[in-house]
Predict the 3D structure of the following.
Amino acid sequence: MQSFLDSWGITSMVFVPLLGAFIMMLIPEKEEELHKTIAFLATIVSAAIGILLLRNFDYDHTELFQFGVDRSWIDVINARYTVGLDGMSLPLVALTLLVTPLVIIYSWNHIPEPGNAKAFLMLILVLHTGMLGTFVARDLVLFFVFFEVVLLPMYFMIGVWGGEQRLYASIKFFLYTLFGSALMLVSFLALYKLTGAETFDIVRLSELVAEKGIPLSTQVLVFGGMFMGFGIKVPMFPFHTWLPDAHTQAPTQGSVILAAVLLKLGTYGFIRIALPILPAAAVEWAPWIGLLAVIGIIYGALGCLAQTDMKRLIAFSSVAHMGYVMLGIATLTDFGINAAIFGMVAHGLITGMLFFVAGSVKERYHTLEIARLGGLLVQAPKLGWILGITTMASLGLPGLAGFWGEFPVILASYDPAPGLSDTLFRVYMVIAAIGTVLAAGYLLWLLQRTAFGTPSEEFKNDPNIHDTVFTEWVAWVPMLILIVVLGFVPSLIFDVTDGPVQLISDMFVNGVDGSALGE
Amino acid sequence: MFALLAAETAEAATHSSLYDNVWLVPGLPALSFLLILFFGKKLPFKGAEIGLAAVGAAFLYALITMFTWIGDVQDSAAHGDEEEHSLVVEGLSVGSPVTGSPITESPITESPITESTASVVLTAEDSHGPPRGAAIVNEVEWFSIGSASGEAAHSDDGAEDHDEEAADDGHGASEYGKYPISIGTLVDGQSVMMLFVVTLVSLLVHLYSTEYVKGDRRYTHYFAFLSLFTASMLFMVLSSSTLQLIVGWELVGVCSFALIGHWWEEKPNSDAALKAFLTNRVGDIGLLIGMSILYFAAGRTFSIPRINELAVSGAIDKNTLMIAGTCLMAAVMSKSGQFILHTWLPDAMAGPTPVSALIHAATMVVAGVYMIGRLYPVFYIGFGMDGGSLNLMAFLGGLTTVGGGLLAFVQRDVKKVLAYSTVSQLGYMVLALGVGAYTAGMFHLFTHAFFKACLFLGAGSLSHACHHSFDMKSDMGGLRKVMPVTFATFVIGTLALAGIPPLAGFWSKDEILAGAGVWPGTEGNGTFTIPFIFGIMTAALTAAYMTRVIWLVFFGEYRGHEHPHESPKIMTIPLVILATLAVSVGFLNMPSPFVKAIGLPEGWAHRFEDWVEPASVSTFPSIKHANPSLSLAIFASFCALGAAGAVWMYYKRLYAKDPMATEYTAETGSIMANVAPLAMAHKVLEEKYYLDHLYTDAIAGGTKGPLARFANWTNQNILDGVVNLVGLLSAALGKFVYQFIDQGVIDGSVNATGKSASGLGGILRGVQSGQIRQYASLMFGAAALMAAVLIFAV
């Protein structure tokens, strides 16, 4: 077993969903139940392998890449098929493995218009492979490929199964992220050339950059390309405008995957690639990243307050929440980065849940216009309760997962890594803390307007409005349980992420001396 | 912490398992919450029985813990007395209290003891462990960050070495992540006192609620949240770390939100709930920042004893403490209803009345006061209370106590009067802590919990009788005859609140006034003139507005249209218990001259102080204790009685003119209308100093309205405008590339895309074919752009 996991574990986990998609391709479209079963099985097998990996993972050495595989791939450019799992990727892999099957369960009786379960589920499976692959890739080219594989299925998902403005939204999503990716790829290639065209291996590149003494100004430029690629994906203010459109137009499943996993590809890129490879440039960029992060926190919150559509409001809240994650990363400290990873997982679960609920509200009321809703707790008490718990989690209530992505970030901003201005980051800290008030404001206001009160005349006697159904329970309960459990037992994530995060934060602890690199 | 932990082992040997398992006190209500939530509706009493049982058990545990603690303290005090007497008694003139003795100083280092006594002391130290009142901390690791940076960090040696330099804010590798973050319990006088108060009031409120909310639309949820609240509050009370305190602090806030908004169908209720939560969040900004500052100042630890120890020893810079303390005061302002963040508290009365008694009078709102006490060295040293004359805390407390008291005057709603009275009394507590009178503040917290809970439950009983109205002017009057039990208990609560001797409020209020150190002979930590004046004013105000309530509710003629009746036993029994406590608990902390004068044994004096105030050297500042003053007590009581008498006369004369009147009007001769400044003042009070207009209309409205709309407009027109422009330009470019350059290749690719897309199962059938080409061309245009960038850049 161990030998299988060591050599094939990660690979099979990543590619089984793709295999499932191929099988589905051969089966006619009308066999809907069969398609759902295959898609579900594919993700379950993938998750089962993932659980085996998690069980055999050596938690005493979370900083090491485990179950690593290193095979030759594109020899011409020294790109290799290098994958591995460490404490930083593990929580995100686990999140992906959890969310996709739940989305498929939810799809069982929620295939959005215009139907066609076969194509819809195939796209989800391709997405699954792309997302998992991104989190386990250790080679920049491989990372890039997986990173881009994710784009196309999501593009089709929004463009075909989306709302009224789906075409605009999908094109915007696709081109915007592609634009960032292009710059990111330039940076990858530049790194490759600058370090002597030897390797695309992330760990090796990190060492090579330190050895070769690349001028700081070049490093800063290269970092800039990555910043664009990852920053758009996060998305950071002011590159976030694709997000509200994509979220609002995407079908529920698309929104959930987008919020739960896709946004994390960008933040993950920062801590997996940008920071460790270019620490000196990271110190130069960190104040600016921090600035954009706190602007995003306030701006996203204000945007939320102005929304009249529930789904668009939740989408804007992502901008604010990812602001906390980016601020945590910008502190370049162990607390900040650990909290950022926690924040990614927490945001994935919580905002994923919010989109699920929004989808179910839409299905019942056929509208998400906040002004027309109200009294959800009267008509569908359980759904209302779930919305209540999730909004509480989203506003960072202690005892629920959201808190650990928020308070430690605020804490870390008080004392950022050496080389960063304490005063500046303390200003960021205060702004971020003010953001928690605004977050409570827009979320509770949403709750008040949708869940409290009494149903309007329009929906009072609508027979279509019913409480949660079985597939919803099955899809949601694991996420809700995790939101609560992680809130009380944060060590479940912190203990795993801390090892690799220390490797990164240690780079900054004694100060990265950029001037020694020479200009 | 480490010194404490070492010492703790010795002490814990005595009652270790009791103190170790004190987590059961919050644990049982937490379990009860889950059980009620999932099974409550299926049970015969709809979940109330689980809540009652759990809180009852928690109360018993708290009670046993309290008596054990008192026993322990008195044991060590008895040992301590042997050597303390030798040096203290001779140094004191007759009549001055023993409280003046340097009990906060270690007798070993400070006293000129002989060899033989020294050995006695040391053996006492050996067998008895920590000094009197030292906290007993019991922690488990919650999570840790920085464990991997060095295994050595976990060893005890590393921690010991770190002790000395912990306070400097350096950035060494060793500095990072030394301390695992713990969760646990901290048992000391203050927390034991609070456990008793919370569990007792909660138990009585549970009992009372079974009748009060009978038949409510959400009876089960109500009890579930009462349990959750009790658990969260107890969790916060037992916090051994500031992080745990934050968690508990916010959890009680959310329970308060849920219970204020219990009847959320009506918008005013959910508005009040939102207001409470958001105002508290504003204060929480200060909490999060203040605790962050302390975390780093204390060398990356959340441990409360450790922070206190470093603050006392001077290892943390005084300025840092001042800044942290100021930030934390924001949290106190919101949670404990201090000016100017108090406005949520009166609105919180939208919740069921037992909730007001438990959460918004007796327990949760004192969390801010409790937190000050928990981190007292931070505030005491940071605000320079030693020998100071005025500081933020004392001033804020003073302002609140008078400001709240004035507002209580103009309310029609009996619950609102009590709410503003709570604001005012919380101000008293903060004032006490602000002038360095720690015990006085804690003692007032203790006594206030009982008489204010008594008054609130009394108000609930009134409304139960008067068909859910709280309006004193239109629905009450003359109720003393029909509701004798409620009347008696309400009057007792009033007398206690007004500080009439010898009821509970008198003793605690008197101590606070003495603590200000203004009255001749009291000699507190400094001379706090302004807070003292505020305090005296409030003594008069409190008596006056409560007299008004008593008159309007119980005297005169009944003005309502119902047939009021006394409430059932299950509601009046809690009232009687609380009234009894309101009479009696004040005797727990009598000053020693008084005890001597009435011929009681010396052991009866300042018991509360002995039990609650930590006498250990390392985690508590050496505060001075003011001398009690008989003349001050007489003066303050006279002020209260005088004010009460004046109000009484006012209503008496009004009654003579018109038995149904509740205020002077044009016919009865209006004072208010005839004196312009008074009328203006009345208007300002009725508008609650216009603060609600500022918050709701200007700040919240401004953010939700223009500011948010502006942000959205920017988003849609400027940021998105750029994106759309880029999109259009690249579309044009794409078209250009598509039509003129390399048409063959691209055409082929487009067709291939089209084919593969339809190969996916015709999923694009909803999309018009013309558009496909357009978008495909866009995609390939972008790809071409990317290729160009690559070629030029690499």
In short: The CA atoms of residues 83 and 137 of chain A lie 5 Å apart. Residues 334-365 of chain A form the longest helix (32 residues). The radius of gyration of chain A is 22 Å.
